[in-house]
Amino acid sequence: MAHVSNFTLFLFLSTTAISIWLFFKAAQNDKRVLFAMLSWTAVVALLAISGFYQKPDASPPRVMFLLIPNLAIVLGLFGSKGGRKFIDSLDLKWLTALHIVRIPVEICLYFFYLNALVPVEMTFEGYNWDILSGITAAGLYYFVYISKRWGKKALLLWNIGGLILLFNILVIAMLSAKTPFQQIGFEQPNIAVTYFPFIWLPTVIVLLVLISHLAAIRKLTKS
Length: 223
What we know:
The protein is mainly alpha-helical. The chain has helices at about 5-25, 30-50, 65-80, 80-90, 90-100, 100-115, 130-145, 150-175, 200-220.
């Protein structure tokens, strides 16, 4: 495990647990979905503990195994009839609330930076503005679901904007990882996500955030 403070570790573990719980609520408390998420977290945790992701000279780069499974899951959900049926059953209110976890995620990334685990470019002091998605998610939830002053158009535009911010940090994370394709962060590369439990950032939290955005956009454009 990478060295971080107990507070950072607690904050990250709590954020992961809350992300899973919020998606479980969005899935109408379906225990099969919870079982699938917990099984996936266990698999990637075991791989991280074994040191599978901590081999920058491996071919193909092990960082690719952080992306390919996520891509396969998303394509499986949106590319199959059963997957789309599941996506359409998700509760839009809980999907919106889930994005609030992006606030503690950005705080964790900043502490990772202070511990030389990610470059400054991956924090809000650099080129990562994803914390705006978390902050505005709270306000959006209030105006759409509590005061009901805003409607589906605002929700759709916000999800599109949040998806763009998510892709921005994903590109930065990839370009700063220790691979032959690294372009930034050479003095302090992105190595945090190769360690347990921080492996859950790209493989669990980011995956759920991505699915939440895509599911919301699908539901809003269909309606």
